[in-house]
Amino acid sequence: MAEARRWLGTPYQHGQSVYGVGCDCLGLIRGVWRGLYGPEPWTLDPYTGDWAECGGDERLKTACDRWLRPVALTAAQAGDVLIFRMRDTAVAKHAAILSAGPIEDPRAQLIHAYWGHAVTKTWLGRWWRRHLVAAYAYPFLSDTD
Q: Edge-to-edge strand order for the sheet containing 69-71?
């Protein structure tokens, strides 16, 4: 959580992941990865910032399935990555880190970046919960060797 909190206030910049300079929601997840483990083990292809993108590949979910450890939504804890689908017909396009939890706690909060907002804390209210798709834990340090 300390690494995620460090990014608070970093300005929003689509497609970026530079602490204190600019990042988007995925850039935050990537930046925390680098802070925990060092260089990212993958190459990131360009992606759109359109949360309502319909059809196409579930690229965000597929990447999370590959590089992170799936967690049951009801078992998500502070530090876990959450991904969201903004419409039923849209692909998952938003990621956040659960910053206060467990997820079942009505006071649970997210750390995330989105258009027009620097990396910020947000209450995990009903709207966000309705769009929640999956939860993931960062891998154990021994899993990244």
A: 69-71, 132-137, 81-84, 94-100, 109-114, 117-123
Topology of domain 2-144, CATH = endopeptidase fold (from Nostoc punctiforme) (3.90.1720)
pLDDT tens column, 112-134: 998 888 999 999 999 999 999 99
Fill in the amino acid letter for 107: R
Q: Report the predicted TM-score, pTM, of the whole model to 2 decimal places.
A: 0.89
Please choose, from the candidates 96, 101, 108, 102, the residue with its C-alpha nearest in 3D space to the C-alpha of residue 132: 96
Integer Cα distance of 91 and 144 in angstroms: 28
Q: For residue 62, report the phi and psi dihedrals to the nearest 5 degrees.
A: -60, -45
Low-confidence residues of the chain: pLDDT under 70: 46-55, 141-145
Quickly tell me which residue has 């930046």 as its tokens: 31
d(CA 76, CA 89): 24
**Beta bridge partners of residue 70, listed in sequence order:** 136
Going from the C-alpha of 134 to that of each of 45, 60, 68, 101, the distances in angstroms are 22, 11, 11, 15
